[in-house]
Specification:
Elements: H1 9-21, H2 28-36, H3 39-43, H4 49-64, H5 77-85, H6 90-105, H7 112-124
């Protein structure tokens, strides 16, 4: 799996892209919501660069990951932790979560894979936690 500089637009975009492909199906509604939210600009990417990041992610996953019986590429917890750790700036993390959540909810169906990804980000980035 390729690496990106910490907090780079590509590192942030890859997590959003992972949210899109995590259920094995990228819907038109998911892409539309990202366009509506101007995701590329929000993430600091040049126009058209998000699709390149998603293509590179898919290439990496096909090269190194097992496929589930449903044909979905899986990301093990170690790899997911590494990908999430490439974004450690709270403002960028918040953008990534907002965009990933909007995309995964766009088709009206949140899969286990999508929920697992968002939950892992919330946990690793210590967001949404209430102090005891």
């Amino acid at each position: 799996m390729r690496t990106y500089p910490t907090n780079s637009p590509e590192a942030a975009a890859r997590i959003v892209a992972l949210a899109l492909i995590s259920d094995g199906n990228v819907c038109k509604s998911e892409i539309s919501v990202l366009r509506h939210l101007d995701a590329e600009r929000e993430l600091g990417l040049p126009e058209g660069a998000f699709s390149q990041v998603m293509l590179q992610l898919c290439e990496d996953l096909v090269a190194v990951q097992d496929k589930t019986s449903a044909g979905m590429c899986t990301v093990d917890s170690t790899t997911l932790t590494a990908l999430l750790s490439e974004v450690d700036e709270p403002e960028i993390q918040a953008k990534v979560l907002r965009l990933a959540s909007a995309a995964t909810e766009a088709d009206g169906h949140l899969t286990d894979a999508e929920a697992t990804l968002v939950g892992a980000a919330l946990l690793q980035w210590k967001m949404g936690c209430v102090a005891a």
